[in-house]
Amino acid sequence: MDVVIYHNPKCGTSRNTLAMLRQGGVEPEVVEYLKTPLNREELVELIEMMGINVKEVLRQKGTPYDELGLGDPKWSDDDLIDFMVKHPILMNRPIVVAGSDAMLCRPSEKVLELMPDLDMGAFAKEDGEVVTDAEGKPVNKA
Fold first, then answer.
1. How many CB atoms are located within 10 Å of the residue 142 CB?
2. Would you say 32 and 7 are in contact if contact means Cβ atoms under 8 Å apart?
3. Domain locations in the chain?
4. Are 58 and 65 in contact (CB under 8 A)?
5. Which runs of consecutive H residues, i.e. helices, occur in 3-39?
6. Which one, of 131, 109, 87, lies nearest residue 13 by Cα?
7. Which fold is adopted by the domain 3-114?
8. 6, 46, 116, 131: which sits with the fewest CB atoms below 10 Å from its CB?
9. Residue 9 gets which letter from DSSP?
10. pTM of the model
């Protein structure tokens, strides 16, 4: 199965998701979307694949979201997509595409929902948070 990750190497969640894929034996196509932005059609297709609202793809922290007033209800989904095309930093990450399915993987362990057969053994995030045990089973968080 072809796997693509829309990745920002400066984002810890994105780095953790990529590491989980690689530890599970998957070498995805890595698209650094800030260097290679998506065009409008690609972004629309990606949002449709995820089956989520356009607003869920918008990133607020560390972006011009507030400066552009994107929380104002006057903006349509089409407007918000246009803003993400013009300012790729507004696209939340990481987004992983596996075959015909896609998911915004925040937190990074959401990739296990998208790819439940990912066999990665024990995995801990950069900050030390344990995600899976030695058998690769998700660790319950109390």
1. 2
2. yes
3. 3-114
4. yes
5. 12-23
6. 109
7. Glutaredoxin (3.40.30)
8. 116
9. T
10. 0.93
For this structure, is 105 an active site residue?
Answer: no
How do strand 123-124 and strand 3-7 relate by DSSP bridges? unpaired
CB count, 10 Å around CB of 17? 28
Q: Residue 57 corresponds to which amino acid?
A: V
**Radius of gyration for the alpha carbons in the chain, expressed in angstroms and rounded:** 16
**Which of 3, 5, 6, 11 is the catalytic position?**
11
* SS3 call for 29: strand
Query: Which amino acid is it at 97?
Result: V
Dist. CA 132–CA 19, nearest whole Å: 13
pLDDT given for residue 73 in this prediction: 95
Q: What is the pLDDT of residues 87-139, one digit of tens each?
A: 999 999 999 999 999 999 999 999 999 999 898 899 999 999 999 999 888 88
